[in-house]
From TrEMBL:
Protein name stated in the entry: GNAT family N-acetyltransferase
The N-acetyltransferase domain, residue ranges: 2-144
CDD domains given in the database record: NAT_SF (cd04301)
Record's signal peptide: none
Record-linked InterPro entries: Acyl_CoA_acyltransferase, GNAT_dom, GNPNAT1-like
Amino acid sequence: MVVTSPQSKQDFDRYYQLRWEILRKPWGQPKGSEVTTEEDSCIHAMVLADSGEILGVARLQFNSPQTAQVRFVAVAQQAQGKGVGKLLMEYLEKVAKEKGATEVVLDARENAVPFYKKINYQVTEKTYLLFNEIQHYRMVKKLL
């Protein structure tokens, strides 16, 4: 497995397809709902299998010079529990730190909270309910 950034239109098409399939489609959200207006100013990461298959995606944005936020973490069903999410997070945390961030924040879906706790994120508050059913929690990790 390798972590890289999408470069071509084809890369981005595959990147957004996985994001939609995992984070939007199961809740009946339309194609296109996985993309936001600030995509061009963000850092995108994806994990590829040796075969070239896309296994996971995530995005990093800066809310301030010190605070980076990870959003839209999605891992293909067949790759869940195999270290893909951890690879994505390590990569984005390294990038955030290199760019001067001192902390990373994210809004985790309730079922993902245990994963983020394992990689040293702390819950700071209960936040919003996505699609009227997916509870999210604000989590933070200080970068040392």
